[in-house]
Amino acid sequence: MDATELSQYSTQHNPWHAAMYNGATAQSPAAGGFVVVNMDTVEFDPSNMCTLGAAAKITIQQDGVYLICGAVTLNSVPDGQRASVAIYVNAAELVRGLDYTVGAVAAQATYSVWTTIYLKTTQFVDLRVQNITNAQAVHPAINSIYLAVAYLGVA
User: Fold this and answer.
1) CA gap 35, 128 in Å, rounded
2) According to the per-residue pLDDT averaged within each range, which of 30-39, 58-67, 137-146 is highest?
3) Which long-range contacts (CB under 8 A, 24 or more apart) does 33-37 make?
4) What would the pLDDT profile of 93-131 be if each residue is shown by its tens digit?
5) C-beta separation of 39 from 57 below 8 A
6) Residue 114 pairs with which residues in a beta bridge?
7) What is the pLDDT of residue 153?
8) Farthest-apart Cα atoms in the chain, separation
9) What's the pLDDT at 7?
């Protein structure tokens, strides 16, 4: 089997993968609880799993084990300020990613999260960010905010 055949086979027999990102939508989540990150661009989605916008989510279309990855980059995070990111499934927190305080220099900071989990058809996954101590603008650039899922197999 050559590379082209392998690519066609994997898409045909495992189309349950998707990724989306925020390429240009400015966001400034207020300090406080977790809020859904706005996504404006689909990177790949052969099974139409992605929903874009302020309620961005990926809807599962096949029961199985999935790898889920996400990240959010915040602009100019001042010294001593904290933020965090989390993956939610059906509007409930599943796993929290990096939660740290930026030191010394106000700079961009990226908060990432990943996990594997068994999901069922119609469940949905979204990515949320929390400004714990100070509201910061989400950095709008390709792949500075992203969410991706990939079907790994049956449980």
Assistant:
1) 5
2) 58-67
3) 33/130, 34/84, 34/86, 34/88, 34/93, 34/128, 34/129, 34/130, 35/128, 35/129, 35/130, 36/88, 36/126, 36/127, 36/128, 37/72, 37/126, 37/127, 37/128, 37/129, 37/138, 37/145, 37/147
4) 999 997 777 766 666 778 899 999 999 999 999 999 887
5) no
6) 69
7) 87
8) 54
9) 56
The residue to which tokens 């959010």 are assigned: 72
What one-letter code names the amino acid at 63? D
Contact (Cβ atoms closer than 8 angstroms) between residue 118 and residue 148: no
Q: What token pair was written down for 124?
A: 């949905």
What is the C-alpha separation between 86 and 23, in angstroms, rounded?
Answer: 20
CA 105 to CA 98: how far, in whole Å? 19
Check if the beta carbon of residue 122 is closer than 8 Å to that of residue 59. Answer: yes
Tokens (6 digits) for 54: 């302020």
pLDDT at 10 over 60: no
Q: What is the mean pLDDT of the chain?
A: 84
Residues 124-149: tens digit of each pLDDT: 999 998 877 765 667 666 567 899 99
